[in-house]
Amino acid sequence: MMSERWLRDPHDPASWPRIFTVDEANDLLPEIMPLLLEMRARKVALDTALASLERLTPAMRLNGHAAEARELEVRIHTLTMELAAGVDHLGAQGIEVKSLDHGLIDFPALREGRVIFLCWRLGEGASIRFWHEIEAGFAGRRTLEE
Predict the structure, then answer these.
(1) Among 37, 42, 59, 93, which one is most buried in terms of CB atoms within 10 A?
(2) What are residue 130's DSSP bridge partners?
(3) Is 28 inside any structural domain?
(4) CA-CA distance, 122 to 104, in Å (whole number)?
């Protein structure tokens, strides 16, 4: 079964759960910024826990580190579930999370009759200044004036 995401057509706005105007996306940023900061911190904690667990060899787990490994596994599970809930929360609003490491998100919007992404990441200020074609990704960003 194909993911719902792949059924979306840049030439058919009705195939998208929500289309944003620049103003609507900007109005959501004050609510989204703290959530993205929290999600990025959890992602760092997850990466740290994964690295710590990876360092525990099977032999170490048998030599007194089993409890530590189990604690790390529980922490990894909890962080993964919390991150998934945050991504789902944003997704339910029609916002696509592109990178938790960078706090990068996209808002589907219309430009010249086709769907594009308004692109924003943590640290870029209180308003969206960039957009890109659906297939272009971050590397294809242009200013809103372009």
Answers:
(1) 42
(2) 119, 143
(3) yes
(4) 7
Look at residue 138 and tell me if it is in a domain.
yes
Quick check: 1 pLDDT over 70? no
3 vs 111, higher pLDDT: 111
Listed in order, strand segments (DSSP E) in 7-129 are 96-99, 104-111, 114-121
Task: Give the span between the Cα atoms of 56 and 19, in whole angstroms.
Answer: 46
Instruction: Say how far apart CA 141 and CA 124 lie, in whole Å.
Output: 13
DSSP 124-135: S-SS--EEEETT
Structure confidence at residue 135 (pLDDT) = 87
Residues spanned by the domain of 61:
17-143
How many domains, in total, are found in the chain?
Answer: 1
Phi, psi of 128 (to 5 degrees): -80, 130
CA-based max dimension of the chain: 64
Q: Does residue 97 sit within a domain? A: yes
Looking at the domain assignment, is residue 8 inside a domain?
no
Other C-beta atoms lying within 10 Å of the C-beta of residue 101: 12
Q: What is the pLDDT of residue 61?
A: 64
* Relative orientation angle of helices 66-92 and 22-55, to the nearest 10 degrees: 170
